[in-house]
Design brief:
CATH architecture: 3-Layer(aba) Sandwich
Low-confidence stretches: 94-117
Helix content: 25-40%
CATH topology: Collagenase (Catalytic Domain)
Number of domains: 1
Strand order of the largest sheet: 1-2
Radius of gyration: 16 Å
Largest sheet: 2 strands, antiparallel
Order of helices and strands: EEHHHEE
CATH superfamily: Metalloproteases ("zincins"), catalytic domain
Distance between the termini: 26 Å
Strand content: 15-25%
Mean pLDDT: 80
Length: about 120
């Protein structure tokens, strides 16, 4: 659902000033949309989570070891909370979905859209 391609080695020294190109992030929108719909969450919230997850990978975080995964998830939670999004790892009630007319076609994939304006 998300891939990160680092532009810099996160374990080396970064430039002291100026903009830093961390790398590229590719998000499979159709996959993320399908996952959000299946989980009963907003597509925007899941996209935000995937973007934050990808940026943290570009900054050198990973989730190979359980302890690393816990630290990465804690950072994701904090960043997403600062952006006004709910904890993506918390058990919660699904969002209310609008009727089938709010489900649009995006290419050949079905994309769920929130019923709120």
């Amino acid at each position: 659902n998300v891939l990160s391609f680092p532009g810099l080695d996160p374990h080396e020294d970064w430039p002291a000033s100026g903009p830093v190109l961390l790398g590229d992030i590719v998000i499979a929108f159709e996959t993320v949309s399908r996952e959000a719909f299946a989980a009963g969450i907003g597509v925007d919230a899941h996209l935000a989570h995937m973007l934050v997850h990808g940026v943290l990978h570009l900054c050198g975080h990973d989730h190979v070891e359980e302890s690393d995964a816990g630290r990465m998830e804690a950072r994701e939670r904090a960043i997403l909370a600062g952006l006004g999004y709910a904890d993506p790892y918390a058990e919660s009630e699904p969002v209310a979905w609008a009727d089938s007319e709010t489900v649009a076609q995006s290419g050949s994939e079905t994309v769920a859209q929130s019923g709120s304006a």
